[in-house]
Amino acid sequence: MKKVYASADAALDGLLRDGMLIAAGGFGLCGIPELLIEAILKAGTKDLTIASNNCGVDGFGLGKLLDSRQIRKMISSYVGENAEFMRQYLSGELELEFNPQGTLAERMRAGGAGIPGFYTKTGVGTVIAEGKDHKDFDGETYILERGIVADLAIVKGWKADESGNVIFRKTARNFNVPAAKCGRVCVCEVEEIVPTGSLDPDAIHLPGIYVHRLIQGSHEKRIEQRTTRSRVSDTTRKKEAV
Q1: CATH for 8-117+148-216?
Q2: Among 121-130, 151-160, 214-223, whose mean pLDDT is lowest?
Q3: How far apart are the first and last CA of the chain?
Q4: How many angstroms separate the CA atoms of 138 and 184, rounded?
Q5: How many CA atoms does the CB half-sphere of 39 hold within 13 Å?
Q6: What tens digit of pLDDT does each residue of 107-131 get?
Q7: Are the C-beta atoms of residues 44 and 37 closer than 8 Å to each other?
Q8: What sections of 32-182 are H helices per DSSP?
């Protein structure tokens, strides 16, 4: 089965439709599928529901799809640094289903594992619990959360082989792995594709069985928030130590 495609546009060909549910990997701006998001923007697919930890920032990542009004609903845990996300939600232009961060990750993982739902204590007694089934276990109240099964998963890895086995870098593993597994079809973009058999099996985070289409590309890798401090000279450092 050929998995490697020449471009993001080619990899998404025949997969996009209005009103679909897309699971998108990434954490903040770390490990986001930039190229696939850009291809969805170009395709003009609309009325999308996106399950993702957050929605990028203004004008970048999933924020581009907010600007173009292609997203109807977000399933996420964090508004983040995106002012347009906040504006659309508060004005009633965007539907938002808030999830505690761990609950969202587990909903994706559960969907990928074929588990339709699970009970958790997180959110009990808050607006998160409204309208959900409550059940007591050992004297504690839990609420039922449904697993997420997406029509399409778009994720970004560091390195993959031609069979679709993927390695992620550090924080990029947080949501990319569960997002990839919960998609009926998973398209992955990576920085490097190597021949099958080149990767150490122990280093693989996402087995190729979950990946249907794969592309290689260059990524901007923006920093969401850059925090620096002024340089301290060796002389000043020694004086402070004394």
Answers
A1: 3.40.1080.10
A2: 214-223
A3: 66
A4: 36
A5: 21
A6: 999 999 999 999 999 999 999 999 9
A7: no
A8: 34-43, 63-67, 83-90, 101-112, 173-181
Residue 241, pLDDT above cutoff 70: no
Cα dihedral across residues 59, 65, 67, 72: positive or negative: negative
Give the bridge partners for 137, in sequence order.
140
Contact 7, 132 (CB under 8 A): no
Half-sphere CA count of 71, side-chain side, radius 13 A: 31
Tokens of 143: 């609420």
Q: Which amino acid is at 202?
A: D
Query: Where are the extended beta strands (E) located within the chain?
Result: 21-24, 48-51, 71-76, 95-98, 117-120, 134-137, 140-146, 152-156, 159-161, 166-167, 186-190, 192-194, 213-216
Residue 60: both structure tokens together = 């970048």
- Which among 55, 61, 152 has a CA at the least distance from the CA of 94? 55
Q: Where are the domains of the chain?
A: 8-117+148-216
Contacts of 150 (CB under 8 A, 6+ apart): 21, 22, 23, 51, 111, 179, 182, 183, 184
Query: Looking up tokens 């938002």, which residue turns up?
Result: 96
Q: Provide Rg for the chain, Cα atoms.
A: 20
